[in-house]
Automatic annotation (TrEMBL):
Transmembrane segments: none
Root EC class: transferase
One record GO biological process: NAD+ metabolic process
A Pfam family the protein falls into: NAD_kinase
EC number: 2.7.1.23
Gene3D superfamilies named among the record's database cross-references: Probable inorganic polyphosphate/atp-NAD kinase, domain 1, Probable inorganic polyphosphate/atp-NAD kinase, domain 2
Biased composition, class Polar residues, residue ranges: 252-262
Protein name: NAD(+) kinase
Basic and acidic residues bias: start-end ranges: 241-251
Keywords noted in UniProt: Kinase, NAD, NADP, Transferase
Disordered as annotated region, ranges: 1-37, 241-262
Superkingdom of the organism of origin: Eukaryota
Family: Belongs to the NAD kinase family.
């Protein structure tokens, strides 16, 4: 066990020295050294959340064809930590609505940010209309120093440096909705019902916020899905220039890639282009008939879904609606898209996980008896008609969620505390069961029958 505490440099020295001895040592000694080297490599690998780089030669002749254009630099999620290249000055505070228990923490936080940290605090305009806040004297003293915005009217892009959420998971989903491109770092305090995405406790908020403002925090990059509805009569076009790379591509141009074959009329249904943090759901709505949905992956027809609907979710959303529909729970650092049927009319239709880079196309089957309805993180519900299609792929704009501890500890703590994952009574050991039966493993059924007969005779 002592060897596992050695530094990488020491291990390299050990490997080098053993390699020199193996030239004169026996074959058995060389095999032992090789085994130790492999053990050390395995130890290095498990310190990263990324999978190990696969060995690219297969047997004597086969290997992966090298293509420099396809080489990507992927950072280890475990090393993702927050840093500020300039001090944050503006903070958006999002609080849970219609919950009086959040008002006192909200006033404490806003007052401290304004008076102690000298930050510009943004809040939603509707928050100031809360009758309980109007009666709060402490809040009235700082009310005029706050900057307000209205959802759907004011654009917050490049105006906010930092986001603090007070409430439940819905506050984080709302922050994702407000920022449809780059999202400022989000620090979420658990003041709601479930709190799976809100790892911070409010008791010592001053110390915790100060640590984050000083850049002492780990980050979980929660991927989002880019969802585009293409209405009948429109055509979807992916346009990338030859010299443009995926890293400098801007998704704001995605809405410009929707071209109408004819001029748009006032009666034509508007297209939808939105990012979701949890999931996009396609269901049968009020219709009594089964949904009949065609699913395509990168242009290839995969299957037709007959049932109540379909859930396309991120790894973050795997612990939401998807897990209730029977899907697996996936760590948010795993690059993937989940496809989960809702009550499929098939015993063999199991949830699947596909690579994060694919594009899914979902449309109403031509022979479907009814239309479908689609919702995005539980909002913007609208009807999907015959001839319409929904395009879904992973966005380049994740939600940077600040960790209370680290990516692994926060997630498993949430599984245990919020979902009671794998909670059950522990099995008793054999000593505790000794008083329940006097029979041994060698007793036969005849012996037990005779023992029962003697008890009855007595």
């Amino acid at each position: 066990m002592a060897s596992k505490k050695m530094s990488r440099k020491q291990v390299n020295g050990l490997v080098t020295s053993k390699g020199g001895d193996s030239a004169t040592g026996s074959t058995a000694s060389q095999q032992k050294d090789d085994h130790e080297m492999e053990a050390m490599k395995e130890w290095w690998r498990t310190r990263s959340l990324n999978a190990p780089s696969p060995f690219q030669q297969f047997g004597p002749c086969g290997r992966i064809m090298k293509n420099s254009a396809m080489v990507m630099q992927i950072q280890d999620p475990a090393s993702q930590r927050l840093t500020w290249y300039k001090p944050p000055l503006t903070v958006l505070v999002i609080k849970k609505v219609r919950d009086s228990t959040v008002l006192s923490p909200f006033v404490q936080l806003v007052e401290w940010l304004v008076q102690e940290k000298n930050m510009v605090v943004w809040v939603e305009a509707a928050v100031l209309d809360d009758p309980l806040l109007v009666e709060d004297k402490r809040f009235q003293q700082i009310k005029d120093k706050l900057v307000t915005f209205k959802d759907g009217r004011d654009d917050l892009t490049d105006r906010i440096d930092f986001i603090v959420c007070l409430g439940g998971d819905g506050t984080l989903l709302y922050a994702s909705l407000l920022f449809q491109q780059s999202v400022p770092p989000v620090m979420a305090f658990h003041l709601g019902s479930l709190g799976f995405l809100t790892p911070f406790q409010f008791d010592n908020f001053q110390d915790q916020v100060t640590n984050v403002l000083e850049g002492h925090a780990a980050l979980t990059l929660r991927s989002r899905l880019r969802c585009i509805i293409v209405r009948k009569g429109e055509r979807y076009k992916e346009a990338l220039t030859d010299n443009e790379t995926s890293s400098d591509r801007t998704e704001t141009a995605a809405s410009n890639h929707l071209f109408s074959d004819n001029q748009q009329t006032p009666n034509m249904r508007a297209s939808t282009n939105i990012l979701v943090l949890n999931e996009v759901v396609i269901d049968r709505g009020p219709s009594p008939y089964l949904s009949n949905i065609d699913l395509f992956l990168d242009g290839k027809h995969i299957t037709s879904v007959q049932g109540d609907g379909l859930i396309v979710s991120t790894p973050t959303g795997s612990t939401a609606y998807a897990v209730a529909a029977g899907a697996s729970m996936i760590h948010p650092s795993v690059p993937a898209i989940m496809v989960t049927p809702i009550c499929p009319h098939s015993l063999s239709f199991r949830p699947i996980v596909v690579p994060a880079g694919v594009e899914l196309k979902i449309s109403i089957s031509p022979d479907s008896r009814n239309t479908s309805w689609v919702s995005f993180d539980g909002r913007n519900r609208q009807e999907l008609f015959h001839g319409d299609s929904l395009r879904v792929t992973t966005s380049i704009y994740p939600v940077p969620s600040i960790c209370a501890q680290d990516q692994i500890s926060d997630w498993f703590d949430s599984l245990a505390e919020c979902l009671h994952w794998n909670v059950r009574k522990r099995q008793k050991c054999l000593d505790e069961l000794s008083d329940l039966t006097g029979s041994g493993s060698e007793d036969t059924l005849d012996d037990l029958d005779r023992a029962n007969d003697s008890l009855l005779d007595s």
